[in-house]
Every structure is written in structure tokens, then in C-alpha cells.
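Hi Y.,

Following your request, here is the sequence exactly as I used it, all 252 residues.
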Amino acid sequence: MCGRFVITSSPQALRQLFGYFEQPNFPSRFNVAPTQPIPVVLNHDGRHFRLMRWGLWPAWVKDPRKFTLLINARAETIKEKPAFKNAIRRRRCLIPADGYYEWHTSDGIKRPYFIHRRDGRPIGFAAVAETWVGPNGEEVDTVAIVTAPASADLAVLHPRVPVTIAPGDFEFWLDCRSDEADSVTPLMKGPEEGEFAWHEISTRVNHVDNDDAQLILPITDEQREAERPKPKKASSRKTAASDIDDGQGSLF
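Below is the corresponding structure, written out as C-alpha cells. Let me know if you'd prefer a different format.
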């Protein structure tokens, strides 16, 4: 899955890679989280840059406050699920990124990892979008990232990964004129084994307010030790006679 990601490439580099007309200027982001506005590239009479809310709201949703947060869409069921079946046919898009975070539990301890292309190049996450229209005519552009089963190497961290679209397939993925999704089904798969690399990072990433370049650095032994969960202290309370269970039970 994908629940946090980073955008560190310059606006100029991303504009050149994704080929949109607009010239947005935005800072690097090291802890992009659901419900925040994120950069999205779509094709509508040419490629365009938009900001959309991460967390898709289908058009038929009456009250988004009571609706499940849909940040990911499973590639295996995206063509049938009511929330996504129209978007995958008509509103495919790309999300520029430079890596993402995943959490893995080992020996009872949950640790975060930064995952990125081994060659360091930016990533185009496959995504689908919907514009939700409220009762007063307000419009909110929303988006979800498509996920697929992980390759054997990435599966050691998590069984699912974001679908990444190669630059040579950007145009094919974004072209929704045929109003169907069968042709792009082969693109909805995880990265090939060995394509991505990863390293353990500090648990500072767990807090959305932390958004700095230190988040993606490999964790040091000193940091790991400092972040190790402290054992709970045994209670120092003395056992009173009333605390002893004599097997008879009590009403008081």
C-alpha cells in the first residue's frame, strides 16, 4: 500500500519529466499524508498539473464525513468496485513522487522504511481521480493511488506496493478517450524485482508535522537505540490482603 510519500525533485525536473503545461513552484515535501493536497498530472487536451485531495470521494457520496478514506485502489478489483470503476476508465492520472514510506513489524517492533527507485529517478504513481460535487455546488478534486501485489524483494516489507508507470507509458496510461480500462490492465503491476531499494529510517516520520530532509536518511545505531520502546516498569504497589483471590469471589 502507500500511506505516505515524498516529493523531492525540483518543480522544473518534474515538469520536464511529466510534460505538463503549467509551471507550478512548490517546495520539497518529505511527509505527504492522506487528506492533504498533492500534485496530480492528467490529460485533458494536453497534460496538466492539478492539486487534488489525497483520498477519493466518488461522485455518488452524499456526506464525505461519513465515508471511508480511500487513499488506495487495488489493481485486481479496481474495474469492478463502485468507488473506482468509472474513474479507472475515464479519469486515470499520475502522481509525481520520489519515494514512499512503509512500516514493517519485526520482533514485535514496528519500524518505518523509505523506499525509492534504485537509480534515484522520480516516480509516477498510477492513480485515479474523481470530482466530488457538494449540495451547494462546491467541487473537490480527489485522488487515490493504485496498488498491486509486491515483488518478492519488496514483499519482505509489505505485501502490496504502489503501481508505478514508466515514462514511456505515461501517454498510454493517461489517454482515457476509449472509455475502457482493459487496455491498461497490463500496466497495473508492481515494480520489477530489484528496481527499488529501501532503508530503515527514524520513527520521526510517524508524526505528520515532521516534514524535513532528515526523515529519509538511514537511521543511525544511536537513533535506533534511543527510539527503542522502553520496558514497562513493574508496579511497586504492595499487595493488600483484599487483593488476594481466595477463589470464592466477592460482591465487593
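The CA atoms of residues 10 and 28 lie 7 Å apart.

Thanks again,
Q.
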